[in-house]
Structure formats: structure tokens, C-alpha cells
Design a protein that fits this description.
Helix content is about 25%, strand content about 25%. The strands form 10 sheets. The protein has a 6-stranded mixed β-sheet with strand order 2-1-3-6-5-4, with helices on both faces. The protein has a 6-stranded mixed β-sheet with strand order 14-11-13-12-16-15, with no helix packed on it. A hairpin with a 2-residue loop joins strand 27 (about 485-490) and strand 28. The longest helix is centred in the N-terminal third of the chain and has 22 residues, at about 130-155. It is globular, with a radius of gyration of 33 Å. The two termini are about 60 Å apart.
């Protein structure tokens, strides 16, 4: 491999002030770090002299490749091209032209990007634009020539390199495109009815549970502060009692109960974290704070409210004598050793879902790391010729912005799962097959949206079946929204991959991700797969559909025996507003000859998928 060292330089005033805003630099790093031995990231402001100094620094340190991202536009602060030209000794216009030509196929906005590429000494320098999607497109363009270009720059003997072996895992080399066996040219011969049987929800759930339980995870050690939401992979016992000493429950005085009521000489004070220096004798007491250890000889605590001051020092800083007004009992207001947790007690059990209280319990018991069950890696892929990235300012004719990837990533995160977005695949069999292969390289579970219905360009099912030999567990479900939802698995590079192909309509994707995908991920962890269900009253009447329907609603808790469910407006599957704020999905039955409308006040089942708030 010719390239050993790479510097990725994000140039942005905004990201320099708030590094969490940088998504382009990490995106490039994630790709190149899997290929090259040393890849570093840094962020600098849009200052020409700083950019020049940074480029020179890494050239002097003999870095093989420097990629900049940002500062290539028309703003007065966009000075990356000028700084790069001041540093390079020879320009490579072909790289810049290739980047521009490729980007113009995606968006006309590429016309105003001013990328520069060139060489200084033995270092290759390439400017990328600032957006995450743009840099991912640029990486795909330049990957085939990077090693060979550096070979030439280093004056190595030119050699034919196996470019495929150095490709990033989600990059599909143009020479290695998958040639799909799916033929969509004969439109008139496409099926007029779905060949997939309609499955009831209960059967779909059983199939998911049975299939996903076969996923083989592992165990890993994590810091307890990073373990929230994970499933315990082992049971842990208390290594010491809690409290480890007899502790006061109240602020007051440690006493000997057999002394009864009456006057006591106040010998000293014991605060939490301190130890009394001598045993307590008859007629004495020790002022004590909540949580402090009792002195030797004391067997009870008398709260301040049950005492009276007799005498104190002249400066009132020291109590000399008090009177106990109520005779104490043995062990009064004392937590004995091991009262909260005994030595060897079970703290957490294998299979428990870790929450904040458990983290506190484990921290108090001296555990700083815990063994948890690993989770499947999840990738999200959108499909559709009409989709464009939501970050693009100008909406192209006949296009819509892809909201599904962003929404599903957030939905999974809301339920504790991380995922990786894999971009948008066009409705072309070869491209879709290549995109699926790239995503399966990155993940155990693939969540796709779009391309699963009956349109001539709905290619996902045939591509999975014909190009990947997938086993399709179901391709239609008796539900609304989400009837074309598909669940499949296939062997890819020696491993089983699980694919959830969901409808492209945002609400359908949202509901089916909750009901199918999150359920599957829970099964993989050995958790209870079902969401909690509760009984609720409809706030208004609702017209039933011919299919069982999952209706987005919010609950109101009023003075009645059950919460009231308020449906969130029009339930059309393209109208994501109907999911905004939803905390439950109402499970409504299909319409029948005797019942086609539910009146207000009807009791129905609600699947609790979000946070309940009063």
C-alpha cells in the first residue's frame, strides 16, 4: 500500500468553535481509517495564513495525502483554494475536474464549488467541499487513483495495484459494479398482483422473534456511565456490605440506650466521613450527622428535636451538656451494617436492562465496568430516483428531500440503538444491488425504505431474491400503514444479514420501524420484544379501515379510570405530522359488516412507544 499517512483538515469557522458540528471530517476518517495505517483529523478556522501553515506542516512531516473539506464556496471567508494554490508546487486539474463533473450529475450547485488539487514535495493535496454527502461522493471519485497517484509522486516504480483490495467497505469500484439479474425492461409483464401472501401481524411478530433470536452476539466490557440501556451480560454480587458500618439515619446524638432519658455530657462531634476517636462511656453522647458512623459503644441515635441544650461554651461554638427528653430504644435511627446491601447480595442479574439507578448501585458497590451484550450493527438505506439530500438548499424539479434516513436514525437512537446512514440508492437494479452490498459490508441489520410496493421501479424484493439469494420471510403484512413491509435474510461474505425493507412513505417507515425493527433489535439482546400495552379511551370517534390500523395518538390523563387517546390529525401514510408528539400507537381492529366506526369513549389497546407525560 502506497499511502501510509493521511491528514484530514476541516476548514470552518463554525466547526472550529463547536467541534460537534463537524460531520464531514469524521465521515472521511471513518472511510480512510479502515484502509490506511495513520489517519488524523483536525479543525481549523477559515483563515488563509492558518490554512497555509497547516498544509505546509503536514507536507514537511512527509504525510502522503492531505484532504481538506470546507471553504471552497463563494463566501468572502471561503479561502481554501487560494491557500492551497499558495502551497502547492504543481496543480492536478484532472482531479478537480473529475470532482466537479461527478458533482454536477447530483446538483447544479457544484458549479460554484472551487476545488483545487496539487502536489507539494511528496504530498498529494485535494480540496473537498464542506457537506458530508459531498465529501462521500468525492471520496468515491478519487479512491481508484489515490494509491497510484502517490506511487508516481514518490517516484516508485509504477505498478498495477489491486485497487479492489484497498477500496473502502462501502465504496463500489466502477470496475466491480454488481450486474443485477433483474430485468425491468418488459414493463407489460410485471405482476399485476403481489405474489407474496398477506400475513397477519401476530404471525409476522412470531417470525421476527424466531429468526432474530438466532443472531449470535457477544459480550463486551463498558464503563458504567456508558452502559445505560444495555443488557447485562453477567450477574454481579456485592463485594462489601452497604453501609459498611453502623450509620446514623438522622442528625442528632449518638447515645447508649440503657442510659435512658436525662442529661448527657456532649463529648465530641462526628460528621459523615469521620471516625470517633474513643469508645462512648455511660452518661456521654456524641453529636452526629446523617450518614456518619456510630462511635464504639453507642447503639442508638436521638434526633435533635428530642433534645434540649443545657450548657455551651461562652462563644457558643461547643455544646457541653444536653438533655435527652425521650428515652431512646436500642438501634433507634441506626442503619446496621449491610442494612441496604448485604455482603454477597445480588446487585444486578444477567438480562437486566441497565438504568440510572443500577449505575448508581454499581458505582456505590465499587464496579466501574460491566459486561454487557453487544448489539447488531444497523445501517439505513433509502431508495428512490426522486430523493435528494435534505442538506441541499435548492430543491430539484420533481424531487423531494429524503427525511427517512434522518428520522429512522433518530427513532432508533430514541430507543437506545445507534445506526449508520448509507445514502440514497437510485431505482436501478445494478445500482441498488451495489448499494445493498455496500451496506451489508457495514452492518448486521439493514433497514431500507422504498422500492417494496408494486411499481415498475420497486426493485428491492426482486434484487434481494435474484442477486443475493435472500430468504423472504414475508413480503406483505395485514396492517395499515405498512402493508408492503418485507423481512428477509441472506448470506453475505460468510455472515447472515437481516433486511427490513419498509415502505417509503415516512409514516409507514416510522410505524414499521417501531413494530418490526426495534422489536428485532430487542430480541437480539435477549430483551422482552413487546412494547408495553395499556387500555385507553378514544377521545373522538374513528372510522375503521379494512385493515387493522396503528394510529398515532397522544394520551391525556384526566380524572377518569383510563387515559384518553387523542388521534394526531390526518393519518395519511405520507403525513409525518401525525407522528409528531405521538407516544402510543392505537391498535384498532379492521372494519366489519357490523362495526365500521368506533365511537368516542370506546376502550382500545394502545402500544406505548414513547414517553408518557401528564
Amino acid at each position: 500500500m502506497s499511502i501510509n499517512t493521511v491528514a484530514i483538515v476541516t476548514i470552518s469557522d463554525t466547526c472550529f468553535k463547536n467541534t460537534s458540528g463537524d460531520t464531514s471530517g469524521p465521515a472521511i476518517h471513518d472511510i480512510l481509517n479502515k484502509i490506511y495505517p495513520k489517519v488524523i483529523n483536525l479543525i481549523i478556522p477559515d483563515e488563509k495564513n492558518i490554512i497555509e501553515e497547516t498544509l505546509k506542516k503536514y507536507c514537511n512531516e512527509k504525510f502522503d495525502l492531505i484532504i481538506t473539506t470546507g471553504g471552497t464556496g463563494l463566501s468572502i471567508r471561503d479561502v481554501t483554494p487560494e491557500a492551497t494554490k499558495a502551497v502547492i508546487e504543481r496543480e492536478i486539474p484532472g482531479i478537480s475536474i473529475a470532482l466537479t463533473v461527478a458533482s454536477l450529475k447530483k446538483t447544479p450547485m457544484a458549479m460554484i464549488s472551487r476545488t483545487v488539487s496539487g502536489i507539494r514535495d511528496k504530498t498529494l493535496i485535494i480540496n473537498f467541499p464542506g457537506s458530508r454527502n459531498a465529501v462521500l461522493e468525492c471520496i468515491e471519485i478519487v479512491m481508484p487513483i489515490l494509491d497510484h497517484a502517490v506511487d508516481i509522486i514518490k517516484n516508485d516504480t509504477p505498478k498495477i495495484k489491486n485497487i479492489h483490495s484497498s477500496m473502502i467497505s462501502n465504496y463500489v469500484c466502477p470496475h466491480k459494479r454488481i450486474s443485477s439479474s433483474v430485468d425491468i425492461s418488459k414493463v407489460a409483464l410485471r405482476p399485476r398482483e403481489s405474489p407474496f401472501p398477506m400475513l397477519e401481524m401476530v404471525e409476522a411478530f412470531k417470525i421476527i422473534d424466531s429468526t432474530m433470536s438466532q443472531w449470535m452476539g457477544s459480550l463486551e466490557m463498558v464503563e458504567i456511565q456508558n452502559s445505560i440501556g444495555f443488557v447485562m451480560g453477567e450477574s454481579l454480587l456485592a463485594k462489601e456490605p452497604m453501609p459498611p458500618f453502623p450509620a446514623s439515619i438522622k442528625d442528632g446524638y449518638a447515645c447508649i440506650s440503657s442510659d435512658g432519658a436525662g442529661k448527657r455530657r456532649v463529648r465530641a462531634a462526628v460528621a459523615a466521613g469521620e471516625i470517633s476517636d474513643a469508645p462512648l462511656r455511660a452518661g456521654e453522647c456524641v453529636r452526629i450527622n446523617t450518614g456518619a458512623p456510630l462511635p464504639v459503644g453507642a447503639d442508638c441515635v436521638v434526633q435533635v428535636e428530642d433534645t434540649r441544650l443545657i450548657s455551651a461554651s461562652k462563644d457558643n461554638k461547643t455544646e457541653l451538656e444536653i438533655e435527652i427528653l425521650v428515652a431512646p430504644k436500642p438501634r433507634q435511627d441506626v442503619r446496621p451494617i449491610g442494612f441496604d446491601i448485604g455482603l454477597g447480595d445480588l446487585l444486578v442479574q444477567t438480562g437486566s436492562v441497565i438504568n440510572a439507578a443500577m449505575v448508581g448501585l454499581l458505582a456505590g458497590a465499587g464496579y466501574q465496568q460491566v459486561k454487557v451484550k453487544t448489539r447488531p450493527k444497523v445501517a439505513i438505506l433509502s431508495t428512490g430516483n426522486e430523493l435528494q439530500d435534505p442538506s441541499e438548499t435548492v430543491l430539484k424539479p420533481a424531487h423531494i428531500r429524503d427525511s427517512n434516513q434522518t428520522m429512522l436514525k433518530a427513532l432508533l437512537m430514541e430507543h437506545g440503538y445507534t445506526s449508520e446512514c448509507m445514502g440514497v440508492a437510485r431505482d436501478e437494479a445494478d445500482v441498488l444491488a451495489a448499494s445493498l452490498a455496500a451496506a451489508m459490508k457495514r452492518a448486521d441489520v439493514l433497514v431500507c425504505t422504498g422500492g417494496v410496493s408494486m411499481g415498475e421501479r420497486d426493485l428491492l424484493k426482486p434484487v434481494l431474491l435474484q442477486d443475493f439469494g435472500a430468504q423472504l420471510y414475508f413480503g406483505r403484512v395485514h396492517m395499515k400503514p405498512g402493508k408492503p413491509s418485507t423481512f428477509a435474510s441472506c448470506r453475505f461474505e460468510g455472515k447472515t444479514k437481516y433486511i427490513f425493507a419498509l415502505p417509503g412513505n415516512p409514516v409507514s417507515a416510522y410505524v414499521c420501524c417501531l413494530l418490526f425493527v426495534i422489536r428485532a433489535l430487542r430480541v437480539c439482546e435477549g430483551r422482552r420484544s413487546e412494547f408495553p400495552r395499556i387500555r385507553v379511551r378514544l377521545a373522538e370517534h374513528f372510522l375503521l379501515d379494512s385493515r387493522p390500523e396503528y394510529v398515532r395518538a397522544v394520551l391525556r390523563f384526566i380524572d377518569s379510570d383510563l387515559p384518553t387517546a387523542h388521534v394526531l390529525g390526518n393519518q395519511c401514510s405520507s403525513r409525518l405530522l401525525s407522528a409528531c408528539g405521538a407516544c402510543v400507537l392505537l391498535e384498532l381492529p379492521p372494519a366489519s359488516s357490523v362495526l365500521n366506526i368506533l365511537s368516542a369513549g370506546t376502550i382500545v389497546t394502545a402500544v406505548v412507544t414513547g414517553r408518557l407525560e401528564a
